[in-house]
Amino acid sequence: MLTRKVSFFSAGWTDAKLKVGHVILFVAVVCVSLIAISTWGVFNSLEYHLHDKETEMSNLSKTLSSNIEATLTQADTVLIGVKERLETEGSDAENLKKLEELLKIQQKRLPQIHGFFVYDEQGRWLLNSNGVIPASANNSDRDYFIYHRDHTDPGPYLGPSIRSRSTNEWIMTVSRRVNHPDGSFAGVTIATIYLNYFLSLYEGVDIGTNGLINLVTSSGNIVVRKPFRDQDIGINISKGEVFALLKPDVKSGTATIKSYIDGVERVIGFRRINGYPLIVVAAFDRDEVLADWRSESLASLIISSILLIILSFIGYRLITLMSQQIQAQRELQASQKDYIEANKILGLMALEDGLTRLANRRHFDFFIEAEVARKKRKKLDGTALIMIDVDLFKLYNDLYGHVQGDECLKAVGAIIRKHVNRIGDLAARYGGEEFAIVLSNTDYVGAFLLAEKIRLDLEQSKIQHRESPLGVVTISIGISSLSELEVDTAEGLVDIADKALYIAKSSGRNRTVISN
């Protein structure tokens, strides 16, 4: 009797120590989890800040490109009218006088216009909407004049940023070629636009203390840049990282790159301007983005630290109270043990694959062993096994991502469920992208017909797969049967079906092979 009492109290003391140990472990796990969640939150916040700034820069570049496009279109529309009038009515003094008056009116209506000009085929000034033509003025050496003289292209030409010879202000040019009635070169009509006007579009735009807005040509030359510096005008940045992203079919995008000019790493948004060979780039200093993130992370760290202290204190108090209530905890522990055992039993009953809703591998192993044993015992008709593998599934996952890969496996599982509906048959997810079907009382022919239905049904569902030769998701199938093979184990049946599947895949995929 004494021995039984000693044993009883010893067991109680052991239970108490285990219980306290569990609580300590629980508190430790919660603390580690809190640290992990806080760490994840910090890095997730970083991604959020960068993505949010990329979106902001993308929207900003879109807005600016629309404004710049409208500015250039207004100037070019006037040039089209000037060109048509000169080509139809000529460039005599009377016509030029009337045209000058009209252009002065247009210039007053368009604040971005520095001036409208007309030059003859020698580069001499014929018209200046500002009213003053410098003596012996000649622009035949300008880039736009040389371009139109040597090219018959009737479209607009955007020249590099230059200083005006009449006012010494920074301007950009939009010009068109003027032809004689026989199509030969007659001169150039040009609109000059203040670079300051583009800078005024950027006023009020928050790009931080070290951000920038860049307007560059498609060849990489800077037209105007904010913050504005004379020495930046005309610099070619085509070898910078942003131009590596500007493929011919890319109209816009976002990225985090280093500046070609000052080496500062920035979050950028870029967009081509419709109808003109220009690109607008809006950028925000990444360090400034991280400054906000760091302050938020510090606040999160402080809060997490306070929670850890509170949690540790609560854990300590809980352990103390548990030591004082050992009798009640012993009963609770017994109940918990029963609950854990019940959960284990429920776990053994969980035989369905959560993704495809087919039987899982454990269910398959139980079923095929039972089916082979049943056939041996009752000498029933054949049992067939169909092994299925999704073709090139790794490439599909790499191309479309794991989430889409799961959707693909769900679709394959749904098609298999649709066709495997006899009582006594089993369709299972064998593992990864492999599936297995066990068909009772079925020979090779019946298994082959069912396999082909599944294969063709999947092919006709046309799930896109750009890396597949057919451009859609396909499957390869191998079939074995107990009725035709000299095997009497489940392992042998699976092994032979696997070999048939291997032959199907090595023979070109998207086919069904029967073991021989």
From TrEMBL:
The chain crosses the membrane at residues 20-43, 298-319. GO terms for biological process: cell adhesion involved in single-species biofilm formation; negative regulation of bacterial-type flagellum-dependent cell motility. It catalyses: 2 GTP = 3',3'-c-di-GMP + 2 diphosphate. Keywords: Cell membrane, Membrane, Transmembrane, Transmembrane helix. It is found in: Cell inner membrane; Cell membrane. Its EC number is 2.7.7.65. CDD domains: GGDEF (cd01949), PDC1_DGC_like (cd12914), PDC2_DGC_like (cd12915). It is a multi-pass membrane protein. Its cofactor is Mg(2+). The keyword Transmembrane helix applies. GO terms for cellular component: plasma membrane. Its main location: membrane. One of its GO terms (molecular function) is diguanylate cyclase activity. Residues 381-516 form the GGDEF domain. SUPFAM superfamilies: Nucleotide cyclase. This is diguanylate cyclase. It comes from Pseudomonas frederiksbergensis. The lineage of its organism: Bacteria, Pseudomonadati, Pseudomonadota, Gammaproteobacteria, Pseudomonadales.
